[in-house]
């Protein structure tokens, strides 16, 4: 992972929430929130919360006496998440690095993290921190994307951009969001951090959009792939987005489109 793979700023948070969230994140957020609520936690920490898709689904499912700390490394993402959330006195918003959490030992019943672990530069350290702030018997609930070939629109966009920039293809999607999918590695890193009863479920969903341009804009302008496109040629972002949209249309049609997405959902016990 490159250092630039962690900086969500400018128009990325808004585009991310407008396009990426409904395209790929909402079905997994509903699933993760259901799993989290099933543990009936009284103190919850969410790390790498992004623009708050899990927060919006999980908060209504927690008890009235629960506390919910929502954190992210990137303040612009956290600010956007807070702006989208219904006022709720149980929620505390905290800018926080998952590798060095600013919380006391054994504070939370549940730590959850949807599609954030791929961005951690030192995942074992992040897992040790999650383990540290969990009470004994508490749960760590996280999800990560499977390999890019199992996530069709992401793969389509990556392949399209490789044709535009053959000498230096933008590989952000394959490198980072889809770069941490080895289940044996995930299990060993969690167990090495002190977790037990690690259960990994691979879950396929459908990504749907009203037109081929939606996933093209989502990936090219609502993720850090945008930075890679702009770094290769100034003013090329719209043309690259158009080309990606054409590639998706060629494969999936020009109207409503749908394609497979796939992720690993993991539960571990502190």
Automatic annotation (TrEMBL):
InterPro entries associated with the record: Methyltransf_11, SAM-dependent_MTases_sf
Record-level GO BP terms: methylation
Ranges where the Methyltransferase type domain occurs: 45-141
The keyword Transferase appears for this protein: yes
Keywords carried by this UniProt record: Methyltransferase, Transferase
Entry GO MF terms: S-adenosylmethionine-dependent methyltransferase activity
One Pfam family per UniProt: Methyltransf_11
Keyword Nucleotide-binding tagged: no
Protein name per UniProt: Methyltransferase domain-containing protein
Gene source species: Rhizobium phaseoli
């Amino acid at each position: 992972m490159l250092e630039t793979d962690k900086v969500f700023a400018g128009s990325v948070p808004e585009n991310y929430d407008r396009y990426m969230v409904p395209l790929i994140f909402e079905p997994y957020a509903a699933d993760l929130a259901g799993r989290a609520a099933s543990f009936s936690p009284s103190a919850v920490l969410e790390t790498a919360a992004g623009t708050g898709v899990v927060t919006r689904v999980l908060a209504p499912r927690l008890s009235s006496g629960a506390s919910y700390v929502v954190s992210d490394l990137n303040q612009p993402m956290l600010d956007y998440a807070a702006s989208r959330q219904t006022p709720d006195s149980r929620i505390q918003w905290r800018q926080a690095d998952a590798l060095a959490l600013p919380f006391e030992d054994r504070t939370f019943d549940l730590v959850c993290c949807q599609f954030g672990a791929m961005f951690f530069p030192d995942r074992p350290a992040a897992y040790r921190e999650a383990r540290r702030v969990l009470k004994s018997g508490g749960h760590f609930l996280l999800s990560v994307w499977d390999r890019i070939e199992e996530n069709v629109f992401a793969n389509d966009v990556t392949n399209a951009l490789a044709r535009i920039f053959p000498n230096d293809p933008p590989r952000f999607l394959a490198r980072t969001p889809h770069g941490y999918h080895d289940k044996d590695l995930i299990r060993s890193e969690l167990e090495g951090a002190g977790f037990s009863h690690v259960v990994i479920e691979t879950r396929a969903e459908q990504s749907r959009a009203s037109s081929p341009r939606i996933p093209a804009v989502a990936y090219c302008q609502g993720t850090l792939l945008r930075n890679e496109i702009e770094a290769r040629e100034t003013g090329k972002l719209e043309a690259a987005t158009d080309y990606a949209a054409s590639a998706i249309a060629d494969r999936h049609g020009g109207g409503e489109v749908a394609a497979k997405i796939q992720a690993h959902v993991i539960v571990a016990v502190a």
